[in-house]
Amino acid sequence: MSPLVSIGMPVYNCERTLAASILSIANQTFADWRLFVLDDGSQDWTLAIARQFADPRIEVIDGHHHRGLPWRLNQAVEMSAGKYFARMDGDDIAYPERLAKQVAFLDGHPDVDLLAASMSVFTDGGRLLGLRLAPRSHEAICVHPWSGFPMAHPTWMGRIEWFRRHRYRSDAVGMEDKELLFRTYAESKFACLDEVLLAYRENTLPLKKILRARKNFVSVLWRAAGRSCAPTIAVRGIVGQAVRGALDAFALSSGLGYRLLKHRVQPAPEQELIRWQEVRRWTLDVVPLLAP
How many Cα atoms sit within 13 Å of 199 on the Cβ side? Predict the structure, then answer.
């Protein structure tokens, strides 16, 4: 019998972080899932670590060659069964209630195609930096499509049929999620849970990666301007990405980082710090005990 939720976890050179990520799925309060760990040609011990888990709900796929995240996500969707498809990365931590909360919402809102959630941000050492909160409604998410969509990619869960109709574009490197949302928002319905359901690992704000993502989204907007998107929307987005890129460069080169780019992390209240310590206790803190 097919599981209700299929989870796609493409991984590449994740030997330091993968065990905790898989543990966070194994610790879910919702049990009707299947996890596909798709190795993308890793050159470290990622594949061997993934194979250490004996849970029959976990299937490890040796990809042999490095194809990239969008290609592996499309592969995961094709392999999946059930009603819902969820995203997961090999360096993040899912809170125990993540799947249960997202399944309950999608079951209760059959008009929603794709659901995301708020998330916390933590470092390799387990320190919580703060939160990234998400707007709840489709209208709030899509209010400024030329600026992108505040739906954290690692938190996605949606209907499998939606993912099969709308495949990731392999040429949208580093911006495959924003490109997919921009391409589909007018004919889809999105939503976010404002509850924190995933911890996102981030030690630094890599300027090169951020600027590359902005450049790729400009390409998305430019391509859209030549098709059905109103040119004024595309131009507005391109200018906005240039301005934000300049702000990113100034903030990171000056050392101000999160202090200037406050939208990237917000202070966590005491209850979220307590929640994180409990999540950490059953994931990050357990991993050293699993070593032979």
Answer: 32
